[in-house]
Design a protein that fits this description.
By secondary structure, the chain is mainly alpha-helical. It has helices at 2-31, 45-50, 59-62, 96-106, 112-138, 143-146, 149-154, 161-176, 182-200, 207-215, 234-258, 260-272, 282-287, 295-331, 336-350, 359-368, 373-399, 404-430, 448-452, and strands spanning 80-81, 87-88. It comes from Antrihabitans cavernicola. The chain crosses the membrane at residues 115-134, 163-182, 189-216, 236-263, 304-325, 331-350, 362-394, 414-432.
């Protein structure tokens, strides 16, 4: 027993160390486009010249300009959105906690290179803690996070690492901290998911399956409070939902009070964003060719997407929750982690924007749930086709030369991801879940634990 525990600790230490090395590689990959000489505004000249051809673009470096980050303006308070749809005065297009992180990363920076470096130092601990938790929950399977291509490509592409941490931490709290009652664990997890919503929105969706898990009493209904009379913990489920809502409101209200126009501008910007060549979505590559090239057809296309996208996202959420409920009817346990993963697949598939770095959102579910490794590697290949190919495509278009093979690479990535997201949607919901903790405890951990052979 002692030997197994020691081995487990060594394995987790190796996973975290390898993650640190991957983060260093990820930083140097982006830093190829940063450094002197600079323009007067602190922008690296090489960034403008080589960001696409060298595939070293990052939103972090790009947004040094245009959001008053370079002027160290606190976000949202004095901001807004102008008649052209451009954010001004410190407003950024992300929820408030991401905006705050952007501001913190820029405090000591006077160039985009320093902003990139400081932001990398700020974000790296989130990735390392995520690696530690995934290692504890999934053993060797956590290497997919620690040394996988998504972390190299996207760790410092945008501000995704904190939001991934909140989602993983919520799962960790519910599945690993068994000594605390389920209702209490779930309320804490709901707070974490609420924080995640204030970073990049998507973890907020996971509150619904978490509430269903609490409603049904956890694994096999064995964690229903003694005060509950009947089969369902209705009060616990409501408490989970309320905890998430209160967290979101508590975080957003100060920003809304201090500068409502600037706070609201971030939502308006995302609502107005169009499905264009920069969004990497099935809508642009699949639906857009069905419309004509004239402005009226473009307007009709965007209107169609503005309706179809949210409807299909919500429909996928409802389907995932319902299929999870059916599985509860046969197994006695509501698979909230699997349902959360399926909901994320629906969002990634149908949302009008599918930025490359969103793959970081999906990787923890690929780690925690038993799914086909060939499918995982296929997804990473398609993802790399987008993460690399789209910038080569942009470079070819801006150069005025032929861009046929670059477009084919992008299309492979778009449709490869789409097909595999459909596969993962259902594969997640079928995935088994077994425990790697002591056999006397409820089996609550995701199925990749069996795959990994961890004894953590």
């Amino acid at each position: 027993m002692r030997s197994g525990a020691t081995t487990s600790k060594k394995l987790i230490a190796v996973i975290v160390l390898l993650c640190a090395l991957t983060l260093a590689l990820a930083y140097f990959n982006k830093a190829r486009c940063a450094g002197s000489p600079y323009y007067d505004n602190g922008r690296s000249i090489i960034f403008d010249q080589k960001k696409d051809s060298n595939v070293c673009y990052s939103d972090i470096q790009f947004l040094w300009l245009g959001r008053d980050i370079d002027k160290h303006v606190f976000p949202y308070v004095d901001g807004g959105i102008n008649g052209n749809g451009d954010l001004v005065g410190g407003s950024v297009e992300y929820p408030v906690l991401s905006g705050a992180l952007m501001w913190i990363g820029a405090i000591g920076a006077h160039t985009d290179a320093q902003f990139l470096f400081d932001s990398a130092l700020l974000l790296a601990p989130f990735a390392l803690l995520t690696a530690w938790m995934l290692g504890r929950m999934a053993g060797r399977a956590a290497l997919l996070w620690a040394i996988g291509s998504p972390l190299v490509l996207y760790a410092f592409h945008n501000w995704e690492l904190p939001v991934v941490l909140t989602a993983v931490a919520a799962i960790y709290l519910v599945t690993m901290v068994q000594r605390i009652p389920l209702r209490t664990r779930a309320i804490g997890a709901a707070v974490l998911l609420g924080i995640g919503f204030c970073l990049k929105l998507y973890p907020g969706a996971f509150v619904v399956p978490l509430a269903a898990f609490v409603l049904t009493g956890g694994i096999g209904g064995r964690e229903l409070p003694s005060t509950v009379k009947g089969r369902y913990d209705i009060r616990g489920a409501i408490a989970v939902a309320v905890a998430a809502v209160v967290t979101v409101v508590a975080i957003n209200v100060p920003f809304a009070v201090a500068g409502f126009t600037g706070w609201r501008a971030s939502f308006t910007f995302q609502q107005n964003r169009e499905a264009d060549i920069t969004t990497n979505s099935i809508w642009y590559w699949g639906l857009r060719p069905m419309f004509g090239p004239d402005p009226a057809s473009e307007a009709a296309f965007q209107h169609a997407v503005s309706i179809a996208s949210p409807v299909l996202v919500l429909a996928s959420f409802a389907l995932a929750v319902w299929l999870g409920w059916r599985k509860f009817g046969t197994t006695g346990s509501y698979p909230w982690v699997a349902v959360s993963g399926a909901m994320l697949c629906g969002f990634l598939l149908f949302h009008k924007v599918h930025s490359p770095q969103y793959t970081l959102w999906l990787v923890p579910f690929l780690v925690l749930l038993i799914v086909s490794w060939p499918a995982i590697f296929g997804y990473l290949l398609a993802d790399a086709a987008i993460g690399i190919g789209v910038f080569l495509y942009f470079h070819a278009l801006s150069s005025g030369g032929p861009a046929d093979w670059q477009e084919n690479v992008v299309q492979f990535g778009v449709w490869g991801r789409a097909v595999l997201l459909v596969f993962f949607f259902f594969a997640f919901l079928r995935a088994g879940q077994k425990s790697a903790v002591k056999s006397t405890e409820p089996a609550t951990l995701p199925g990749a634990l069996v795959q990994s052979g961890s004894t953590a």
